[in-house]
Design a protein that fits this description.
The structure holds two protein chains of two kinds.
Chain A: H1 2-23, H2 29-54, E1 58-62, E2 71-75, H3 77-100, H4 111-126, H5 130-148, H6 155-183, H7 191-196, H8 201-219, H9 228-234, H10 237-262, H11 268-291, H12 295-322, H13 326-361, H14 372-375, H15 377-390, H16 397-410, H17 418-450, H18 457-460, H19 467-485, H20 487-502, H21 529-550, H22 576-591, E3 595-599, E4 610-614, H23 618-638, H24 646-667
Antiparallel strand pairs in A: 1-2, 3-4
Chain B: H1 2-24, H2 29-54, H3 58-85, H4 97-118, H5 124-146, H6 150-170, H7 176-204, H8 210-216
Helix pairs in contact in B: 1-2, 1-5, 2-3, 2-6, 3-7, 4-5, 5-6, 6-7
Classes of the chains: A mainly alpha, B mainly alpha.
Amino acid sequence: MPVAILLWCVLAYLLVAAFSVGLAKRPFTTSVVYAATALISVVACVTALFCLNSSQIATLRLPLGLPWLGASFHIDALSAFFLVVVNLGTAAASAYALGYGRHETSPERVLPFFAAFLAGMNLVVLADDAFTFLLAWEFMSLTSWALVLAHHRSPENIRASYIYILMASFGTFALLLAYGLLAGPAGHYGFDEIRAHHPDALYSVLVLGLVLIGAGSKAGLVPLHVWLPLAHPAAPSHVSALMSGVMTKVAVYAFIRIVLDLLGPPAWWWGVVVLGLGGITSLMGVLYALMQHDLKRLLAYHTVENIGIIFIGLGLTLAFRANGLMATAALALTAALFHVFNHSIFKSLLFFGSGAILTATGERDMEHLGGLIHRMPLTAFAFLVGCAAISALPPLNGFVSEWLTFQAILLSPELSQWGLKLIVPAVGAMLALSAALAAACFVKAFGITFLGRARTRAAEAAKETDRFSLAVMFGFAAICLLAGILPGFVIDAIAPAVQIILGGHMPHQASVPWLSIVPIAQNRSSYNGLLVFMFIAISASMSAYAIHVLASKVVRRAPAWDGGYPEKSPLTQYTAGSFAQPIRRVFGTLIFRARERVEIPPPGDTRPAKIEVNLEDVIWDVLYAPISGSIAFLADRLNVLQFLTIRRYLTLVFGALVVLLLAIAIWR
Amino acid sequence: MHNLAFDVSHLLAGGLVLVSFMMLYQDRLYALLNVFALHAVLLSLSVGWQAYIQDAPHLYVTALIALIFKALIIPIVLHRMIVRLGIHREIETTAGIGPIMLVGIGLVGLSMAVMLRVTADANLIAREDLAFALSVLLLGLLIMVTRRNAVGQVVGFMSLENGLVLAATGAKGMPLVVEISVAFSVLIAFIVIGIFLFRIRERFDSVDVQALDRFRGDRR
């Protein structure tokens, strides 16, 4: 029954998409479409919430697709959890777009694909056989690609969408092979059948590698993240929010479904691989983000970082599960899923904020913004909450999930393999470092964008954004706070999903007194978000009160405070580049081969002094440039084949046939 | 009786391979067409024999189709086409006869090596038939590759189809549907290529496919 409702929702999305194809140019269509998708998303989200509570598995088989296979759909607690995440994000994005979408110059390029994209993401999570899964996955990729290409006039967007479609097809290809290996020679494509037949050790390793490539390229694991910071900023902001906040989560779902559910018992070293990748991803993501001055690109790199954190949780799950420590594995998986939820909320919130800034000023570059807190105070507040949440500051939700991850890391001495014992603390250190750097990065993002004085006319003329956008942003900010101070309820809601994967879950948290959360035991560690929130609220108001009461009432006269800027020009302010300089000097010289060149003209010369910073993307240079170079070389060489005579083509076919027959004759 | 069945089908299939070799070195179009007609007759005999020993009357229809279409109608039509195009005096010089024959022998050896090994547990007649059929197919491709004239290529293509039919009838119990589809594919290919010939002719005054390359302006 719930599957049927959700499939009706998917159909409704597709109908909305079809409706918007014809009528996209009419003025009312934008509002109608976004209102419809918001409504459908709410219905789907509520249905999924009920499924999450009921913890039973519902399946449905439609006579579509391959005749002997059909298209099977299912919803278990894991799917339900991800459906909640997906549809919460899509509902918010649709509601946000009620306001934001009015500024769209070419709605006919956005609306149909937007609705279809929502349908695709839901279908991936609902799929119950490999064929349906891959079809939905590719559908999701293609529709999101069309959205990246919505503003197709700028060469930057064309390049972004080109790289995106390449990576997406490559990823789907890897997933196709992974499912092929899972299905085995007998062709078991249904998830139930795959679960019943575990592949042998070698195939399992291959499947793990292929899923890491396939799902990892969609999620943004380093070094497969290259498309993400290009494509996410290129799309309209509500789509960026969905791609960053929600679509990457669908990729995480794919990883969990295949590796933790379908693939069978893990070997202990799988944990090492996933942990290592997660640690590197989180650290590299945040370092890249620190070097960025484009607001949306910075946010996209932070998605990479947070995906790293999620994969650290998943790696810990694999490691503990391989050692039979189910309680700890459940803790790690809960942490990962909690972070999935959190990241989808605050990353969407931040992208909504950047979209509001983009419509108000037309700028994405932080160096051209500044002082927006005076002109857009409400947006600034919501954005600040998002920044604090993503920086993992208590009492917000980001803190809880990272704290849970650390709790799992601190239990690593229970693991029996030395490889794991050594790598887990190292990954913990990386996680701590990336959390700290993320905080620094968001101090930069918020400070440069909203504080200080406006650096350009556009920033000076900014106006507060519309009511729909504000309502959505405040709603998400409230969720950040609520999930932060009442994490026990979220953990309990995740428990059925963890139960279905691991067969066990974290202890029930809602029954713990005073709404604390206790991951392992009361004497070991506990956290009470409400207490922290009360403490912060009370101490902050008390100190504010004290300052007001105790401060001297004597009127002082002084020259206008110049705050270190004796000149009035906003150019003298601290910039994003200068904020990032210390970190660039520490890490950048190694990882980005950062070079700084200061040029000071000799005395008497009136030219301004200049500082030039060169950054190189080492991953691109080492990994991607050789590949694209060799492909270009080969294509150049093979170009000759375009201009052969008919007889030569026949000869080629003939030669290929003879070579293949020879291969059979020799090797069989 | 079993031995006789095997020997005759072996003889006919071997005869097809031999005629394929004969087609390889025909440098006049008329002669090529005549040899092709012989090829088709042999094919229809072979199919008929299969019908007889397999007790499969529908294969007689197949044999009849092969005889009427491939041995009579198509050669006659192509004959008239050659006359109408006025290319009956043309002599095709391809690579030397010696090397082509050597390549052909190599191909037959290859197909024997592949087929006899792959079909180790099939029935004896089917094995031989498949091996010969693959040889005919490869030789047909070789004819197509070595001919420069479009008519020659059409004939090569159809001898390739003959190889397919031989393979299909050698295996027991092939339904007529497939044969009809094969026959139709040949017919359609024939029609298409026939139209193609006249179009080339109209444009370039020649059915030499090199004219196309010259027209494209590059000979790489």
